[in-house]
Design brief:
- It is a multi-pass membrane protein.
- This is Cytochrome c oxidase subunit 2.
- Keywords: Copper, Electron transport, Magnesium, Membrane, Metal-binding, Mitochondrion, Mitochondrion inner membrane, Respiratory chain, Translocase, Transmembrane, Transmembrane helix, Transport.
- Residues 29-162 form the Cytochrome oxidase subunit II copper A binding domain.
- By secondary structure, the chain is α+β, with helices and mostly antiparallel strands.
- The protein has one domain: Sandwich (Immunoglobulin-like).
- It is 20% helix and 34% strand.
- It has three helices and ten strands, in the order ααββββββββββα.
- It has helices at 3-13, 17-25, 153-165; strands at residues 32-38, 43-47, 54-57, 79-82, 86-93, 98-102, 107-111, 117-122, 127-132, 145-151.
- A hairpin with a 6-residue loop joins strand 2 (43-47) and strand 3.
- The chain is globular.
- The model has no long low-confidence stretch (mean pLDDT 85).
Length: 166
């Protein structure tokens, strides 16, 4: 096989690797979409499928932790999602480059000012999953935890009703 035929094969017969990469990351019909907007010292979560369901989340200082909570990993409000549902998280930043990383879910997506990135996953097991910003984004970089709590659908519906009533 000569250079011309191998170039033809790579250029015209094989799919575009970037197209395949984006197709693998796309979730066509998510059951829930959550927008995570990163600020320097806190994160805002907006549940776009629910009218007016949004809240800010920041770390809990050590002196306010309860027994059993993890230092530098706990937040005052957790991102709650239902199990067995395709979830899409839209990720952005309003100031500097951040990252939304939850290793146990296999998710790490950069949050950039002026750009909306997405991450997709299906929550299978219940539990609490911890992550952190994995970019060196300025002062107090280590105080930017992410907590995702996966619950059964009926618990999620009760939680969302309570949040909307508050």
């Amino acid at each position: 096989m000569n250079y011309a035929s191998s170039s033809y094969l790579i250029s015209y017969c094989l799919p575009d690797p970037f197209e395949v990469l984006y197709l693998m990351d796309e979730i066509n019909n998510p059951h829930l979409t959550v927008k995570a907007l990163r600020h320097q010292l806190y994160r805002t979560y907006e549940y776009t499928d629910y009218q007016d369901l949004s809240f800010d989340s920041t770390y809990i200082p050590t002196q306010y932790l309860s027994t059993g909570q993890y230092r530098l990993l706990e937040t005052d409000h957790r991102m709650v999602i239902p199990m067995h549902s395709p979830i899409r998280v839209l990720i952005a930043s309003d100031d500097v480059l951040h990252s939304w990383a939850v290793p146990a879910l296999g998710v790490k997506t950069d949050a950039m000012p002026g750009r909306l990135n997405q991450a997709a996953f299906i929550a299978v097991r219940p539990g609490v999953y911890f992550g952190q910003c994995s970019e060196i984004c300025g002062a107090n970089h280590s105080f930017m935890p992410i907590v995702v709590e996966k619950v059964p659908l009926d618990h999620f519906e009760n939680w969302s009703s309570l949040m909307l009533d508050a």
